[in-house]
Backbone:
């Protein structure tokens, strides 16, 4: 069918290759039209067996390749700003993996470029908004029968951190998910952040401040606390409890199967975020493809990407200073009102 | 892309229309090429907005329509035999909703036709095999670390039964899912069945024997019990516990969110099988499309469809007689060895 | 205080010694006045350090010892009938461990003796009626908001069976707990029983039919199924789900602590019934002491003890015959009306 | 029996009357010898029907009454210091309800008096140490297989607060339980406290800062966070999750019965601490009676009572200042080494 959405995928690393596979074999209505990666062999490997997908080393060449009608950015964070601006300049709808732009100044330039354009083209890859649990929690909070949310208690645990993971990355890479999730669930901006550091776990690499306990205040008077523990050793656990005026709701404790053996009744804990959130990734990309084919943008905005970067930057400063740190946000352009 | 799998969908009722939507908007690699339904208006409504899909009132016309390379049968059960034989005669791969053929004699004719053909073309729509919980349970049993399965305890509850639901339909419509699931999980044939009838619930329509308690014996010495209760009033619950020599495993008790309010900590119970098994349906059809495009058949076979019909027939006789009833199966054709 | 209830404990084995400890150190308002056991050394060991407790080898001597105002029978089952009749003859209130009398003919003689006496003196040790979970389930069923109970699904698993445990003992020793619990929860008599035997677990001793699946019908049209598996290997699990017209309720799945470690979130499964039911035993004896001091009998009656024996006997016949077996009960004496 | 422990109960209010009942009818080995309350009618009502219990309006008269060998203090907090000093002066073992002494200066005077005495006589009523869940968590942490504890996440919710409950009382009355539990579970002292105040719930009385989020640091480098919410509206919930280097353990999420009805699978949430902790109270008093009869003191010490008061005072200052507040503790007397 001629109307499959031709997508240029930027970046053919772990995440990029996974998105190529998803567009080719999981998602309905799209096809991979081009892939760009400085490592051309990696790009070719990603598209092996996919008819009609051209391979490029340069971003611009991929965006200009025949059949490209939308862009999925899965390159490393530092390359995002240039890629986003190039996509916006061509009027191409874009799904950009998080972080949108690692530094808030660069993120703000993207916001401003899109605001100048006067219409939304960018969606940011905060895929938790597409997770079934988070969506149910969001729906419950919006419905209002539990009253106003007062606190969110969040847990974010990984089995172990990648090599070269820094103490700041617990905030700007890991907790950035909770930053977006909290803003979205509450519909409020985060205004201040405090980071507490218990004595590091013996299981953490030397010098890494792991775990950390991060506290956010919001402009609606709510409190968000996040335990982030990237070397917990036993599994990938993401939980969120919303405490409201008339009740609380918790997600992330379910299990697919309960096994009684050897003196215990046990539920498996996934070891990897791809296991936990595979459906969310699929739903996110399907939702983006569906909306894009209809000329709409429905997901997290560039403003959400900017706000996440600005809050994370304040969080890293709070980590370093040990003090409560205010978050400064630029004025929100009219384009993002209500989002 | 020219290589999207063109599918003829037979039947445009509730289930057929849902499959049309799934093929068009959810599943990757397929397109709706034709739809057939005696009610032409219904067929046209199902394909509204789908380019390239022809509409027919006759099965054969749909199978012969341009671009049709595979068939999805979602018409009423009594129409399945003819449709399956027509698809087999044309060498078309086919996904047939359950029951494959309601009566075992007819089901056996389909088995024999495919056996004569000498290659497998038909997959039967036992979608529980594609549910994440069932797949995990199957993987655990196959892995063997809990030892041999001794018993399966199953629960199958619906909020309320459709109008005109009969006592026999608790067996041949509802429990037929457990019949297939048990055969698949255990890798054993069911050899006898007993049906017990507690005094019917006040919530069941007059004259309907609801709930029922169904006991199956297997050729591997295992026992399968099923509570089927189609007017339980409160939700759609499907559970299965496998009791093995060294442990037990249970699926169907998980929840997406736990809400504490008004004196209780509660998980929502879905009201509908489409909510509970939507992912299983999507995965089933995606898996069928993927395999079909590669010229393979990987799902439940016509033999599975026949066996389910034969066991269900014995179950209905057991319901009527109140006695333990042996299941008689025809010899298994070579084509289905190991399946 | 002079008014502590002086109790003669018959039997100083595992269970008897535990009751001596309980009366002396856990329960309020009672004291051990006498202990009888054919093995005098065992009796003396049981009362070591307890002032005022005399030691005997003969039942009658213990019942007649100074200060004895009530009797707790914890001797082997075959000795119960004689002990009960002796206690009744003296007008002594008695708490008798289950089985009241192993054979229903003997049990009926006790019932008749008490009926002739014209007042209740005997309470039978069905301690599940004192377990918090069972009490909550009973209260819920009695309250009626779930409607009439239609089915009870029961599970009774032990880590391993004692030496010399026979296939019949799965019924008359293990399932006898479920027999009483079902009668009590439903307020109905059990009228027929069928026993199914899956191929025995490799973990069961040679020749033992373990697990078994036992089905009871009731005079109220309900169905009770019991999985009994006394060599399940992994823990002591007792569960009960009551399926009613407007909902279901399940006990026995709770846990004191959930531990996430090594890839699983696990709740400990107790290894022993004393761990699972310690509070029930304490509550049972406290309740008996309290009622006895007030001249009342409030717990399970001799009729309950007789009915349990009669149903278990039918169950053992059903196990041997493989057929559905009716339960025959003697007429219920007026003394037990409403109990 | 002459050797029942005669106890003087000080205070015949809600808690005192409950302890009188417990000593008389639940606990083994003790009897109520005297009750004192300024309201003599209330004291007389509490002991109605209890033989041998004298009634007093003055503490000293009760302590000196015939048969008194131990003291249980359940009077209002401000009366505790005088009562404790009087008991110590007489060499009487004492179980004192929390708070031991509301102000840390007074608490320190009790510590010093006992230290001068050179032997421990006082046990403080931190009954959570006797709750089954807390004991299992403590045992798990002490066992060490999860490694060093890094964080405790605590939740303490009440349906509604008593009249005249103040913002400070969320700390020094409610959170004081978590203060002791954290010290005991970790075996560490709390060194600093920060209190965060989300915008109060609409369900809280005007002017009450409810909920609050309290953060404690420990001398072992651990972090303890407590959500305290005394007008949560829906139930009494006490949870604690210990996050350790190699796993986490959570208590307080269990349930006695799961009821599926009306679209939800729900566990009841208790409405009252007496329901949740009734067994802990019974076990606490039984344990105190047992130890006292053997001339030993085994429970929380006067030092624990003092430390809880000192930490709570720092917490109230932190609540008022909004700043992180250090906890100052007096040197620990030799008598309490290792406790």
Residues:
């Amino acid at each position: 069918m001629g109307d499959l959405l031709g997508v240029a995928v930027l970046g053919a690393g772990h995440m990029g290759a996974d998105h190529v596979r998803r567009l080719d074999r999981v998602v309905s209505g799209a096809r991979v039209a081009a892939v760009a990666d400085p490592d051309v062999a990696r790009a070719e490997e990603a598209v092996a067996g996919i008819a009609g997908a051209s391979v490029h080393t340069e971003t611009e060449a991929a965006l200009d390749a025949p059949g490209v009608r939308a862009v999925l950015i899965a390159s490393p964070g530092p390359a995002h700003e240039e890629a986003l601006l190039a996509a916006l300049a061509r009027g191409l709808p874009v799904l950009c993996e998080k972080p949108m732009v690692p530094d808030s100044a660069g993120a703000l330039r993207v916001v401003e470029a899109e605001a100048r354009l006067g219409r939304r083209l960018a969606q940011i890859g905060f895929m938790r908004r597409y997770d079934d649990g988070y969506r149910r929690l969001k729906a419950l909070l919006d419905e209002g029968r539990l009253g106003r949310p007062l606190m969110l208690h969040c847990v974010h645990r990984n089995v172990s951190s990648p090599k070269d993971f820094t103490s700041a990355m617990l905030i700007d890479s890991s907790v950035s998910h909770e930053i977006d999730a909290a803003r979205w669930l509450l519909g409020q901006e985060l205004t201040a952040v405090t980071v507490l550091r218990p004595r590091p776990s013996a299981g953490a690499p030397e010098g890494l401040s792991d775990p950390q306990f991060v506290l956010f205040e919001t402009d609606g008077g709510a409190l968000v606390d996040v335990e982030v523990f990237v070397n917990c050793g036993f599994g990938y656990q993401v939980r969120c409890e919303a405490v409201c005026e008339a009740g609380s709701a918790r997600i992330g404790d379910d299990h697919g199967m309960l096994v009684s053996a050897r003196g215990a009744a046990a539920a498996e804990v996934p070891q990897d975020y791809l296991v936990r959130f595979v459906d969310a990734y699929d739903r996110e990309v399907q939702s983006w493809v569906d909306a894009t084919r209809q000329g709409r943008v429905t997901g997290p905005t560039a403003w959400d990407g900017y706000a996440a970067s600005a809050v994370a930057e304040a969080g890293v400063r709070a980590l370093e200073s040990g003090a409560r740190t205010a978050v400064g946000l630029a004025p929100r352009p009219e384009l993002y009102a209500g989002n």
